[in-house]
Amino acid sequence: MIxxxxxxxxxxxxxxxxxxxxxxSEKPVGFWSNAKPWSNVKELEVTDMRAYxxxxxxxxxxxxxxxxxxxxxxxFFEQNSPVFLAVMAGVVILIIAIMLAYMKVENKxxxxxx
Length: 114
Hints:
It contains four helices and no strands. It is an all-alpha fold.
C-alpha cells in the first residue's frame, strides 16, 4: 500500500506543478482537455489575464492538496478495504467541484460576446 500512496502522491505533485506553471503563465491558461495553450487553438479571451490565471492556478493547487489528503488512507488501511470506496467517491466529488469552480472563474473573467 505504500507503493500505491507513492504513486498517488506523484499524481498530486503533477497537479501541483500544473497549478504553479499556470500561475506563472504569460498567456491565459486552458482548463479543459481541448484547451491546449501550446497549440494553434484560439487563445482564451479574458478581461484580466493575471487574475484569471491565479484563479485557475488556485483551483489546481487546492485540487492537488485535497487529492493528496484523499490518498492518506493508503497508508493506514489494508488492500481491498471498504474505505477505498469512500476515497474514490471523494475523488469523483472533487473532480465535479473543480469543474464547477472553473465554470465560475470562466464566467467571471471571460469577455462577453454580443
